[in-house]
Amino acid sequence: MNKVYFISWIRGSGKNTLISKLTSEYADDFQQALSVKTREPRPTETLGIDYIKYKKFNFLWETQILPLFNIHHFIERNNHFGEYYGTRKQEITKALEDWKNVLKEIEPEGLTKVFNGTQKFPYQRVFLNIPDEVIEHRMLTRNPDECSKNIQLSIQRATMERNVIDSIRKNHGKQFIISIDSTQHPQEVFNNFTHQINYKWAQHHS
Questions:
Q1: Dihedral sign from CA coordinates of 92, 93, 95, 96
Q2: What is the dihedral of CA 178, 182, 183, 187, to 10 degrees?
């Protein structure tokens, strides 16, 4: 059965690598759901590829778009520092109708806001985790001049994100979250993911 996989992560855990491999090498079976956002793209982002942008504070936004964030057209939505984020239900539904599994990035705290009882399609939460020492190592590998303050902030955020995941497990049961150790080689992370979701077609495609 096709599902929506909500993928949460610790910074540096290889989320982009995993999603890229699934959507490029197994594109017949996996599709990434793009978010609708109102903020401007970051230097590493491309509109239409990384997300869909809505302009704020014009007639269309005020009369048609903004109200949708408050009803059931979005499977999850959030307001972060005055910018709106969300995932459109129609995009998820269309991909499932095309017999694809849907990959959706979502921060751990966002997992608590997913679904309000009105959505009926199957889903699974996935959490990519790495220990604090790996966070520090990977940050320094990417930028040898990374300051200790930024490293500690990332570790503190990772601790909070793990606490959110633990809370979800406590309230909803362990079966609601697949936890993957991302300290391994990216191929091993991929193999672990496909094994845990029981992706039978992986061997056929490889």
A1: positive
A2: 110
